[in-house]
Design a protein that fits this description.
The complex is a heterodimer. Chain A is built from 8 helices and 6 strands; from the N terminus they run αβαβαβαβαβαβαα. Chain A is α/β, with parallel strands linked by helices. The radius of gyration of chain A is 15 Å and the shape is globular. Chain B is of the alpha/beta class. Chain B is 38% helix and 18% strand. In chain B, strand 1, helix 2 and strand 2 form a beta-alpha-beta unit. The chains are: A alpha/beta, B alpha/beta. At the A-B interface, strand 2, helix 3 and helix 4 of A face helix 3, helix 5 and helix 8 of B.
Chain lengths: 175, 191
């Protein structure tokens, strides 16, 4: 049986005391976003661009709250400059990022940023954890939460595109 | 008479009490420091465009405390989408004050979009800010900052002037830790 990774990740972030969840939607995050929206102890905050999620996370931490940012890999490029603030201030940061531009990607324009995402994050001082299998995701997130909030780390868990399922034009048309 | 930025910011921060303050990169970070450095101030030395979002994060984390973002027109324009994000969240305790000199003050005083009439107060209003005001003369803004249910937005037109730099501490870890410590001290006193 496939593990229910969105429910597992939601459980981990709830257990870590996360109260603010910033997100830029991705199809792969649909269920996790819904779980956070339905959780009365969490404030789900839709963003117009991923970099707003960094300001939100840093502001929440200044105010004593823990947060998580949900986004897709295409948004990683939008974060580069503001990750400098995370690094220089050692703000804790947890990002759960669904991958685009990997195997089976139907849109070639998603490929360059997808291929560069891990390197871009690492270059800006973010620890990258690659979750290639659904059963590995929650454990990676748990470790990222601990490292971030106990050791003031910047952490990204990248969820492989093969875990989420591949979008296709046919599928999109039929929806 | 044209308003001057240091006077405006000093007045906004007068008898600030437990007010939580974020200042945007550049002149507004120097302005709040000229008014008196404070442990409950977080002056940004980078992350241009994120001042209002830091304010939102703080406001959501501390719904019982008032939060004031003081930033410049150029910084606000770079993060203009955050006005929409704040409009959706409707934090009652947040005020964003833009000190608008219509210039990029740190890079050679080039004109920003507000010099050509881009109306930030109207943008904030359209994004759902409860109160949004264009301020061109000396008025009392204390109740807006400390009492009025927000989100509130102030676009305060000021003279374009180059002033002596008054620099806050620049160690980011120090700025973060002193803010969190001061906030927890305030919370310990007033549960």
């Amino acid at each position: 049986m496939q593990p229910d990774w969105p429910a597992e990740v939601h459980q981990e972030i709830a257990a870590a005391g996360v109260r603010v969840v910033g997100y830029v939607p991705d199809a792969g995050h649909k269920r996790l976003i819904e779980l956070c929206q339905a959780d009365k102890k969490m404030r789900a905050v839709p963003l117009t661009t991923e970099e707003e999620g960094i300001g939100l996370a840093c502001g929440a931490w200044l105010g004593g709250e823990r947060s998580v940012l949900l986004m897709q890999s295409s948004g990683v490029g939008n974060l580069i400059n503001v990750l400098g603030m995370v690094s220089v201030c050692r703000f804790p940061l947890v990002m759960v990022i669904t991958m685009r531009g990997e195997q089976g990607e139907f849109n070639p324009w998603q490929v360059p940023m997808g291929e560069a995402s891990a390197r871009v994050l690492e270059t800006m001082g973010v620890a990258v954890r690659q979750a290639g299998e659904p059963q590995a995701i929650a454990a990676h997130v748990k470790l990222a939460l601990t490292r971030a909030f106990e050791a003031q780390g910047a952490e990204a868990v990248l969820i492989a595109q093969k875990v989420i399922g591949i979008k296709s034009f046919q599928e999109q048309r039929s929806q | 008479m044209t308003l001057r930025r240091r006077d405006v910011v000093k007045k906004l921060l007068d008898k600030r009490g437990g007010l939580l303050v974020v200042a945007g990169l550049g002149s507004t970070a120097w302005d709040i420091t000229a008014a008196g450095d404070h442990d409950l101030s977080f002056p940004l030395w980078g992350a241009m465009g994120q001042a209002a979002m830091l304010g939102l994060g703080l406001a959501l984390a501390q719904p019982k405390r008032r939060v004031l973002v003081i930033t410049g027109d150029g910084e606000m324009l770079m993060g203009i989408g955050s006005l929409a994000t704040i409009g959706v969240q409707q934090p009652k305790n947040l005020t964003v004050a833009v000190i608008d000199n219509e210039r990029y003050g740190e890079t050679g005083m080039q004109a920003t979009h507000t010099a050509d009439g881009v109306d930030l107060a109207a943008v904030a209003k359209a994004c759902g800010f409860k109160n949004s005001k264009l301020v061109t003369k000396s008025v009392d803004l204390r109740s807006m900052v400390h009492e009025t249910a927000g989100p509130n937005f102030l676009q305060i037109k000021v003279a374009a002037e180059k002033l002596p730099l008054v620099l806050p501490p620049h160690d980011g870890v120090h700025l973060k830790e002193r803010f969190r410590k001061a906030l927890s001290d305030v919370l310990a006193k007033k549960p």
